[in-house]
Amino acid sequence: MTATFELKVNGSAHRVQADENDLLLYVLRNDLDCKGVRFGCGAGHCVLSVPEVFDQREDDGIVVLLQPEPPARIHRAVRDAATVCPTGAIRVEEGT
Question: What is the pLDDT of residue 10?
Protein backbone atom coordinates (compact mmCIF):
# COMPACT_ATOMS: atom_id res chain seq x y z
CA MET A 1 0.00 0.00 0.00
CA THR A 2 1.37 3.39 -1.00
CA ALA A 3 1.50 6.09 1.63
CA THR A 4 2.85 9.62 1.95
CA PHE A 5 5.83 10.06 4.26
CA GLU A 6 7.46 13.23 5.49
CA LEU A 7 11.22 13.03 5.87
CA LYS A 8 13.84 15.51 7.00
CA VAL A 9 17.10 14.86 5.16
CA ASN A 10 20.20 17.01 5.60
CA GLY A 11 18.07 19.72 7.19
CA SER A 12 15.47 19.87 4.40
CA ALA A 13 11.89 18.63 4.67
CA HIS A 14 10.61 16.30 1.94
CA ARG A 15 7.30 14.60 1.24
CA VAL A 16 7.51 11.31 -0.66
CA GLN A 17 5.10 8.63 -1.68
CA ALA A 18 6.32 5.10 -1.20
CA ASP A 19 5.09 1.64 -0.44
CA GLU A 20 5.37 0.90 3.27
CA ASN A 21 7.66 -2.05 2.38
CA ASP A 22 10.07 0.06 0.31
CA LEU A 23 13.57 0.31 1.70
CA LEU A 24 14.48 3.78 2.90
CA LEU A 25 17.72 3.39 0.95
CA TYR A 26 15.81 3.29 -2.35
CA VAL A 27 13.57 6.21 -1.42
CA LEU A 28 16.61 8.33 -0.54
CA ARG A 29 18.56 7.38 -3.67
CA ASN A 30 15.75 7.30 -6.23
CA ASP A 31 13.20 9.83 -5.01
CA LEU A 32 15.43 12.34 -3.21
CA ASP A 33 18.56 11.89 -5.37
CA CYS A 34 20.82 11.18 -2.36
CA LYS A 35 23.39 9.18 -4.34
CA GLY A 36 25.84 9.00 -1.44
CA VAL A 37 23.54 6.59 0.41
CA ARG A 38 24.68 3.01 -0.16
CA PHE A 39 23.62 -0.47 0.79
CA GLY A 40 26.31 -2.40 2.55
CA CYS A 41 27.35 -5.90 1.61
CA GLY A 42 25.46 -7.71 4.37
CA ALA A 43 28.52 -9.87 5.00
CA GLY A 44 29.10 -8.40 8.45
CA HIS A 45 32.89 -8.05 8.33
CA CYS A 46 32.53 -4.84 10.32
CA VAL A 47 30.37 -6.58 12.93
CA LEU A 48 33.02 -9.23 13.42
CA SER A 49 35.76 -6.58 13.62
CA VAL A 50 34.07 -4.23 16.09
CA PRO A 51 30.91 -5.68 17.69
CA GLU A 52 30.83 -2.76 20.14
CA VAL A 53 30.16 -0.40 17.22
CA PHE A 54 28.28 -2.47 14.62
CA ASP A 55 25.53 -5.06 14.80
CA GLN A 56 23.70 -7.02 12.11
CA ARG A 57 19.95 -7.53 12.09
CA GLU A 58 18.99 -11.16 11.88
CA ASP A 59 15.84 -10.67 9.79
CA ASP A 60 17.40 -8.86 6.81
CA GLY A 61 21.18 -8.79 7.37
CA ILE A 62 21.38 -5.00 7.46
CA VAL A 63 24.24 -3.71 9.57
CA VAL A 64 23.35 -1.04 12.10
CA LEU A 65 25.57 1.49 13.83
CA LEU A 66 25.49 1.14 17.60
CA GLN A 67 28.01 3.86 18.51
CA PRO A 68 28.43 6.82 16.15
CA GLU A 69 31.26 8.12 18.35
CA PRO A 70 33.15 5.09 19.67
CA PRO A 71 35.67 5.44 22.51
CA ALA A 72 39.28 6.18 21.59
CA ARG A 73 40.45 2.72 22.67
CA ILE A 74 38.72 1.15 19.65
CA HIS A 75 39.35 3.84 17.00
CA ARG A 76 41.96 1.70 15.27
CA ALA A 77 39.56 -1.26 15.08
CA VAL A 78 36.87 0.98 13.56
CA ARG A 79 39.34 2.24 10.95
CA ASP A 80 40.27 -1.38 10.20
CA ALA A 81 36.56 -2.28 9.81
CA ALA A 82 36.19 0.54 7.29
CA THR A 83 39.21 -0.78 5.40
CA VAL A 84 37.82 -4.33 5.10
CA CYS A 85 34.32 -3.20 4.12
CA PRO A 86 33.93 -4.60 0.58
CA THR A 87 31.42 -1.93 -0.47
CA GLY A 88 33.17 1.06 1.08
CA ALA A 89 29.95 1.86 2.96
CA ILE A 90 31.82 2.80 6.15
CA ARG A 91 33.37 6.26 6.27
CA VAL A 92 35.44 7.30 9.26
CA GLU A 93 35.63 10.99 10.06
CA GLU A 94 38.35 11.92 12.49
CA GLY A 95 37.31 14.26 15.30
CA THR A 96 38.51 17.80 15.49
Answer: 80
